[in-house]
Amino acid sequence: MYAISLGDAELGPLEPWHAEEFLANIDRGREFVGRFIGLADRVTDLASSRAFLQSYADKTAADTGRLYGIRVDGKLVGGVLFRTMDVTQGTAEAGCWLEPSAAGRGLVTRAVEVIIDWAVTERGIHRIEWQVASGNTASIAVARRLGMQRDGVLREAGLHRGEWYDLEVWSVLAPDWRARQSGAE
């Protein structure tokens, strides 16, 4: 996938050579991003930034994941990804991060819509999951806007910064996604 317009933003691949730009993005949103996901704790310097991006370049090459940056006026403000992708089983888990300056503009919803559509139409993915800490109301709202269904809550399924949290699992199935995209819901 090459750069795709999201209206007032652009979605495009995020690769190892973007490590400095990616680190700057994480630095600008470290506390905001780190409230619910470990990315802010994992990417702390140029070496860890490059390693994270390389891990997704490797996943892309193996067809087991993808990583895309969201840019506004050429500046990286966040991204979306397939944390996991199993084409044989037809499953994938989508996720996101966003710095505070870009929040509340619908960028994540539009970007995830693009990658879900790609996964369903181009890669034949049948089930897309969205796993989110129960307290992350903004991310839950994205799942709802995308027409996902809440499958359940895994109680105290994750440990983040020393605290256990409940993990909600949301999903959309390919037939439901196609119906939604065609307006036949």
TrEMBL record:
One of its GO terms (cellular component) is cytoplasm. It holds the Pfam family Acetyltransf_3. Keywords: Transferase. CDD domains: NAT_SF. SUPFAM superfamilies: Acyl-CoA N-acyltransferases (Nat). Residues 9-170 form the N-acetyltransferase domain. Coiled coil: none annotated. The keyword Transferase applies. One of its GO terms (molecular function) is protein N-terminal-serine acetyltransferase activity. It comes from the Bacteria. InterPro entries: Acyl_CoA_acyltransferase (IPR016181), GNAT_dom (IPR000182), Ribosomal_N-acetyltransferase (IPR051908). PANTHER family: ACETYLTRANSFERASE, RIBOSOMAL-PROTEIN-SERINE ACETYLTRANSFERASE. This is GCN5 family acetyltransferase. It comes from Amycolatopsis albispora.
